[in-house]
Design a protein that fits this description.
Elements lengths: L3 E5 L4 H12 L3 E6 L13 E4 L5 H8 L5 E4 L9 H18 L7 E7 L23 H20 L3 E6 L1 E3 L8 H10 L3 E3 L6 E2 L1 E3 H13 L6 E5 L5 E2 H12 L3 E3 L18 H7 L7 H15 L1
Parallel strand pairs: 1-2, 1-4, 2-3, 4-5, 5-6, 6-11, 7-10, 8-13
Antiparallel strand pairs: 9-12
Length: about 300
Amino acid sequence: MSKKILITGGTGFIGHHLAKKCLKFNWSVTSLSTKKPAKQRKLNKVKYKTCDLFNDKKIKKILAIDYDYVVNLAGYVDHSNKSKTMRSHYYGCKKISEYFLKSKIQKFVQVGSSIEYGKIRSPQIEKKTNKQKTFSTYGKAKLLSTKHLLNLYRKFKFPAVILRLYLVYGPGQDVNRVIPITILNAIKNKKFNCSDGLQYRDFVHIDDVTDAIIKTLRTNKVSGNIFNIGSGQPVQIKKIILKICRLVGSGRPQFGKIKLRKDEISSLYPDISRAKKILNWKPKINLNLGLLKTVNYYRKNG
């Protein structure tokens, strides 16, 4: 049977790719966001609804549908405004989950973040979720959301699952992340400033991320759990930048020109064995192939 899915934040990078994958299953897809989709992200069969989560009168009409699944991707991308960050990422999650508390949804997937672990040593493991101290408003908002949803599961068996994503990349990502920034500068053969690039990070391709979300929605008896979603293979930022420049055949990175933040973590990557075992998920797109696909996209689309 065709499923009905609501994607909050469905006009963003991950939301767009997830909606596109859901349409392949002939699911009925509704996107809820504060803005209309950009032209390149608009999908013909998706029902786009624009509304602030805190507009009670309007939101009740939009949510008065028997959805099977809800995936929460909502929240401001710009985290410089602390009150907006907390409002959209924590209070927004709280609001949307409580709307569905008395409904019959089969799964509520909260898209969390690796930053919830704070400075817990890598490889980071889900079981250590209550021991960490976050060091940013965004991290605090995401961790509070996780704790809120797990509490709803314990009290009411609310079917919440948290996916903690690491650094997602791929075609169509906004140009405010290290991979698209590097690709576009390399294509233009520009000089561009970088940090020393000695920090290690975990990059996971968008297709693997949407696959993980779909597997979570379709897997029984996983509510009340947290899963790390990453490649499980950390790579040095400097190596990523140089690899992209080699793929493009140009680009002049200026390493050491940008100072690292005081709270910068030197090594950030997950243990993904839990997702492999319980969700039967593992990343399929290695870094070389993923970067090639991403470079080819920006060459065609700019």
